[in-house]
Amino acid sequence: SLVVLFGATAGAYGAKLGSDERELILLVWQVVDLQSKKVGTLHKSLVKADNLDLSDQCREVSGLTPEGLGKAEPLDRVLQQFSQLVSSDLKVLGRSSYTLCSDGQLLIRQVLHPETSKKNFLLSDCFYSFYDLRKEFHTCYPSSAAVKDQTIKTMAEYLGLGTDEAEEDFGVWQVKTMVAIIFSMLSEGCNHIFTEPETVKYKYETGPCLLCLLFFFLCSSKSETVDSETVIRARGLPWQSSDQDIARFFKGLNIAKGGVALCLNSQGRRNGEALVRFVNSEQRDLALERHKHHMGSRYIEVYKATGEEFLKIAGGTSNEVAQFLSKENQVIIRMRGLPFTATQEDVLGFLGPECPVTGGKEGLLFVKYPDGRPTGDAFVLFSCEEYAQNALKKHKEILGKRYIELFRSTAAEVQQVVLNRYMSTPLIPTLPTPIIPVIPPPYTIATGSIRDCVRLRGLPYTAGIDDILEFMGDATGDIKPHGVHMVLNQQGRPSGDAFIQMKSADKAFMVAQKCHKKMMKDRYVEVFQCSGEEMNFVLMGGTLNRSGLSPPPCKLPCLSPPAYAAFQTAAVIPAEAAALYQPQALLPTTRTPQASAAAPPTVTYYPAQAAQLYMNYTAYYPSPPVSPTTVGYIAAPPGAVAAAATATHTPILPQPGALVRMQGLPYNTGMKEILSFFQGYQYAPDDYNGLIQLSDQARSVLQAPKEWVCL
After folding, report:
1. Residue 284 class from Cβ within 10 Å (0-12 exposed, 13-18 middle, 19+ buried)?
2. What is each CA distance from 294 to 120, 205, 460, in whole angstroms?
3. What confidence tens digit (pLDDT) does each residue in 179-228 have?
C-alpha cells in the first residue's frame, strides 16, 4: 500500500518549499491499495505553527488564515493522528504495511525532518522511506519532462487528466490527482511496479571517508577525486559544533560516511567552517537551499565547494590514523594541553574507570610535530555517548601541572591534524607573509567632503583586488595608487564591501554610472559615489545607508592587506600583522634616554629605500596555541639618529621586546582590568595624544578604551 501525502508551509510553495525555514501548516493524505486499486478515506489536517504569520503566496494559494490555523493541533499531535488514521484505513483495506508517496522530495526532506529535529521530537520509521512520484512517473513515461520540471499539474496534463483546481479545496485536489496518476501508472499499458523507494539516513555515519583513505595511498595519482557536485561549505558555525550538530542541521539529507570535515585555523582551532560531502548531487542541491537557515540563534551560510577542497581538509591519513579510525561508531574526544611528557598510562589514569577508552592504549592517538616532538594534543575513542560525556566532565581538570581541555571531535579532524606529521608542508598553508611597509607612504586615506570615492557593495566573498580591477575595466587607470580598500568584518572575513579612491569626483561619478549593478562572477555589484569622509566613517566601523551616516562604535578599522590606519599616520601595518601590532595611533611613544656625548639616543631606524620587515610563522598545531614569532628591528646607522630625533611628527614603534600580545581576553575586558592584570609591572605611559595629530573623532576613540581594547 501507498500513503499519498501532500503538505504546505506558511511560506514558499512549489519548488521553494522549505527553503525559507517556515513551518508546516497543512497535511493531506490518502491510503492506496496497489493490488485491489482501492483507496481509503481522504484526510485533511491543519497544523498550528508557532508563527502564524502567513506569506502572501501562502494566503493566495492555500486560502488559509491565521485565525483558522490558531484552532488547529500542533505538529506532534497531528503526526500522532496521522499514524492512528493510517493504521485504521489499512485495517479496513486488509493491509498491514505501507510506504509514503509524495510529490517530489521537498516535503519529507526539507520540511518534516528539519522541523521535527528543531522541535526535538522523533518521526516514526515510515518517514525514513518514501517514493518520489516525479521520479516514478519519469521512469514509467521516459518521454515526459525532466524530473526537476515535473509538477502534479504537468503530470496530469501529460496523461490527459482533468486539472481544474478550483473544484476542490487546496491539498485535496493535489492528493486526488496524485492518486489518479498512480492508477494510470498501474494500468495494463504500463504495469509500473514501485520497487526502489528513496531513503533518509537515520543518523550520520562517522569514520574515515573511504575515498579520502584511497586518496592518501594514491596521492601521486590525480585520478582519484571527490565529485565537486556533492560538496558544500558551511560557514558561521558555532566553534563548539561537532559533526553530529552539522548532520542535525542537514537532517533529512544523506551525508556520505565521514563526510563532515571541520576546518581548522593555523593554530589548530576550529574556524567556524566545515566542508560537507553528500551522497549525490541531488542531496547537495537540496543542502544549498538551506542557505542562512538557523543553528540555534545563528544563521549558517551554505555555498558550493569543490572535491579538491574536501580532500585537502579530510584527505590526510596514515596507517596509524586508519587503524585508529577503523573502529566504527565510536565517539571521538580531543584532548588539548597535555604535558609534553604525558604517556598513555597518564592519559588513561586521568580519564579513570568511569570513562573507559575503547581498546585501552589502542584507543589513544597522540599528535606530534614532523620531527616527533609532542604537540600536547591527543584523540581518544569511546564506545558510547555515556563514556564520552563522563570524559567531557573532566574539562579543565589538572594533569601534572597543566589543565586539560576536552572537546568533541570528528574523524575528519583527526585526519586533518595528524596529517602534518606525514607531509612536508602543513595541511593548512602557512599564513601569507605579512609585510610591514616602514617607509611613510605618500598616499593616505582621503578626507573631506569631495565625492571622489566610490563604494562597492555586494562583492562575492571570494573577490580579490585583481577581481575588482578587472570589474572596473578602463576606469582602473583613474584609481589613485593604494586606493583600493577592501573591508573585512569583525571575524576577519570579507564583508562584501570595498572603497576605491578615484583621481577626481568626475571620475568617481563616471565609474558609479558605468559599473552600477554590473556582474562580478555570479553576483551583481552596487556602486555608489561617496566622499572620503564617508569612507573613513565606514572603515572605522560606522554605517553608511539611506538614512545617512551613523557614527562608528569606536572600534578599530578592519581592513584587508594592505591595511590602512583609520587615522592619518606615517606607517602602515597590514591586517595579518594587526593581531600582533595595533596601528600606531594606539601605541605609546617610545621612551628615549637622555642623550650624552658618548652615547647617542637609541632610535628604531626605518631604511630610506623600500626596506621591508618580514614576519614568518608556521601553521603546525601547538597546544595550547602560542603567539607568532617576534619581529626583529633594524639597527640605526649613526647618520640617521639626528634625522630621527628631529622628526618629532613621525610615530615610532616601541623598543624591541616592549610589546606583548594578550590572547583569550573576555569580550567585556576594559583598560582597568588589563592594568590590574599587569599590576606590579612597569608599562608605557598612556599619553596617546602626543603621539600624532589627532582629530576629535580619533581622540574620542582613544578615550574610550573599553571599546577598542578587545581581541
Report:
1. buried
2. 15, 23, 22
3. 999 999 998 788 899 999 999 999 888 765 554 555 544 443 444 467 88
Angle of the 152-159 helix axis to the 133-140 helix axis, nearest 10: 30
Which residues fall within 8 angstroms of residue 349, CB to CB, at 6 or more apart? Answer: none
| One domain for residues 365 and 239 | no
Number of Cβ atoms within 10 Å of the Cβ of 2: 21
Which of 24-55 are b and which e, b meaning 16 or more Cβ less than 10 Å from the residue's Cβ? bbbbbbbbbbbeeeebbebbebbbbbeebebe
Residue 644 belongs to a domain: no
Residues 245 and 352 grouped into a single domain: no
The pLDDT score that the predictor gives to residue 226 is 78
Q: Which residues have CB under 8 Å from 144's CB, separation 6+?
A: 137, 138, 150, 154, 155, 158
Dihedral class, residue 448 (left if φ above 0, else alpha if ψ from -120 to 50, else beta): left
Percent of the residues in the chain that have a pLDDT greater than 90, as a whole number: 42
Name the domain boundary from 315, 339, 356: 315
Please state, as a whole number, how many other Cβ atoms lie within 10 Å of the Cβ of residue 460: 14
Instruction: Please identify, among 173, 199, 225, the residue that sits at the C-terminal boundary of a domain.
Output: 199
CA–CA separation, 413 and 427 (whole Å): 11
Peptide bond before 624: cis, by omega within 30 degrees of 0?
yes
Would 684 be classed as within a structural domain?
Answer: no
Pairing type for strands 397-399 and 435-437 reads: unpaired
With vertex at residue 210, the alpha carbon angle to CA 206 and CA 214, rounded to the nearest 5 degrees, is 145
Q: What is the domain range of residue 230?
A: 210-315
Residue 601 has pLDDT above 70, yes or no: no
Q: Give the chain's length.
A: 711
Are both 278 and 340 inside the same structural domain? no
Kindly state whether residues 91 and 165 are assigned to the same domain: yes
Contact 386, 323 (CB under 8 A): no
Judgement on whether residues 175 and 33 belong to the same structural domain of the protein: yes
542 pLDDT band, cuts 50/70/90, is: low
Tally of structural domains, the chain: 4
Q: Give CA–CA dist 219/212, Å, rounded.
A: 10
Residue 463 confidence (pLDDT) above 80: yes
CB contact set of 398 (below 8 Å; sequence gap of 6+): 404
Residue 165 falls inside a structural domain: yes
Identify the CATH number of the domain in which residue 516 sits.
3.30.70.330
Question: What pTM was estimated for this model as a whole?
Answer: 0.53
Asked if residue 339 is part of any domain, the answer here is yes
Number of H helices, E strands in the chain: 23, 26
Helix (H/G/I), strand (E/B), else coil: 314: helix
Identify the weakest region by mean pLDDT among 10-24, 395-409, 437-451, 475-489. 437-451
Q: Which amino acid is at 607?
A: P
**Average model confidence (pLDDT) across the chain:** 75
* Average confidence (pLDDT) over 691-706: 39
Q: Alpha helix (H) ranges present in 328-447?
A: 344-351, 385-392, 411-418
Cell (9 digits) for 450 = 569631495
- C-alpha distance across the termini of the chain, in Å: 61
